[in-house]
Specification:
8-stranded mixed sheet; about 35% helix; about 300 residues; 2 domains; alpha+beta
Length: about 300
């Protein structure tokens, strides 16, 4: 489980930093002279398109900086709400670069404990809403706070369920850009999964599997792509909710993904496997009605039948 960083940016200096290195991402080529060869190689490896957003912490916050990991989610806060969200790709300690980017504060300190993240997406989550989710009373971020464990999980769930979280296009673009960084990709894919599940199931606590038609708590359902995501055109990835349907983690998602069953004209069709246990399971699904099949997504099911289904 990734952490969630609550990062205030409400004072004059933080707002200036946000404008300078978040709203205006840093070009790695413009800062290479301030980086050691190790740091330069590191940033070139974790930054995918030559530019990245940056934030820094003074030495008093180093203990919390130590908790930050690639794949963590940062929520920026001001004016009684969290207003943007990004995914951490890396971090370094660099006093020289920090001073070049932000100068020093009134105590002569630099924000030298730095972390880097993708351009953030706009959100709108009131402090009160997140406080309720994580169990805080009237908490107002006044210094960096790193949530982990159940608090991080609750914060992420609040983020995913926020109706103002992100456009599908923005989130999908993030997934496409970060595929090669395992921890970061995993975190962002979870956010796309949250968006898909929100579109399919709303705020329901229970949902029905599109294959077996059984009803489960939503944590046992995945918003599965009907057409394999890696084969989708950009316009298809953004075709939400038509591109996906809920499938349960009790076996239906795996059976569909591995081509042991498919949907033809709204009915479940199965592969003629020789494995007796698998055959019994598939027989229980054969001919069931798929309530999620419709004219808008029939083309995606057809692609699955032609390209994934084993029982051609």
């Amino acid at each position: 489980m990734s952490n969630v960083i609550l990062q205030p940016a409400s004072g004059t200096e933080p707002r200036g930093h946000y404008l300078d290195t978040v709203e205006t991402p840093i070009q790695i080529s413009n800062i290479r002279q301030y980086l050691s060869s190790d740091d330069l190689n590191y940033l070139n490896r974790v930054v995918t398109n030559g530019s990245v957003c940056a934030w820094g912490i003074t030495p008093t916050g180093v203990t919390r900086w130590n908790k930050i990991r690639p794949g963590d989610t940062v929520l920026f806060a001001r004016d009684n709400h969290y207003y943007s969200s990004g995914t951490v790709v890396g971090k370094i300690h660099n006093q020289t670069l920090s001073k070049q980017l932000w100068g020093t504060n009134s105590q002569g300190q630099t924000w030298e404990w730095m972390y880097f993240f993708n351009p953030p997406l706009t959100i709108n989550i009131p402090y009160s809403q997140l406080n309720m989710a994580v169990g805080y009373d009237n908490y107002v971020p006044q210094g960096i706070n790193v949530l982990d464990g159940h608090k991080a999980e609750a914060a992420l769930e609040t983020l995913y369920n926020s109706s103002n979280y992100a456009s599908a296009e923005d989130l999908i673009e993030h997934v496409d850009q970060i595929q090669e960084l395992d921890a970061v990709a995993t975190s962002i894919v979870r956010k796309e999964q949250g968006l898909l599940r929100k579109k399919l199931l709303g705020n329901a606590s229970m949902g029905k599997c599109g294959i077996c038609s059984k009803t489960y708590p939503v944590q046992f359902l995945i918003a599965a792509h009907i057409k394999k995501r890696s084969e989708c055109l950009d316009v298809e990835k953004a075709d939400i909710p038509a591109i996906a349907m809920p499938m349960c983690l009790m076996g239906c998602d795996a059976l569909y993904e591995k081509g042991y069953l498919t949907v033809i004209d709204g009915r479940i069709v199965i592969d003629n496997t020789s494995n007796p246990e698998l055959r019994n399971l598939l027989n229980s699904l054969e001919g069931k009605s798929c309530d999620y099949w419709n004219n808008d997504n029939s083309g995606y099911f057809d692609w699955h039948r032609r390209n994934t289904f084993n029982g051609q």
